[in-house]
Design brief:
Blueprint (H helix, E strand, L loop, with lengths): L1 E6 L2 E4 L4 E9 L1 H5 L3 E7 L6 E7 L4 E3 L7 E6 L4 E6 L8 E8 L4 E3 L3 E6 L1
Parallel strand pairs: 2-11
Antiparallel strand pairs: 1-3, 3-8, 4-5, 4-9, 5-6, 7-8, 9-10, 9-11
Amino acid sequence: QVQLVESGGGLVQAGGSLRLSCVASGSFLRVRFIRTMGWYRQAPGKQRELVASISRDGKINYGDSVKGRFTISRDSAKNTAFLQMNSLKPEDTAIYYCNANNSADDYWGQGTQVTVSA
């Protein structure tokens, strides 16, 4: 009953920036009670890893590899999460997935491709 749609991926040169967006929609109550939204990424041959997450009360976590370069934010009123990615590196190349959860369920978007050229 919750759908997540990502946007903003693309091709960028090393050192460049991208801004990803994730919009949650569906059941009013399910969307309303989302606790945490976050971004994960998965590169070919690698496991999915946490990029950043933000809770309803604003608590933020970042993966070690992106600290100081990426910034997550959230507009709860619009059910939207953002990921500002600066100083991108080729190793950031991956499919980026939006995630949202409550006490009972985990929701995932279809992903958006981010490719960083050397």
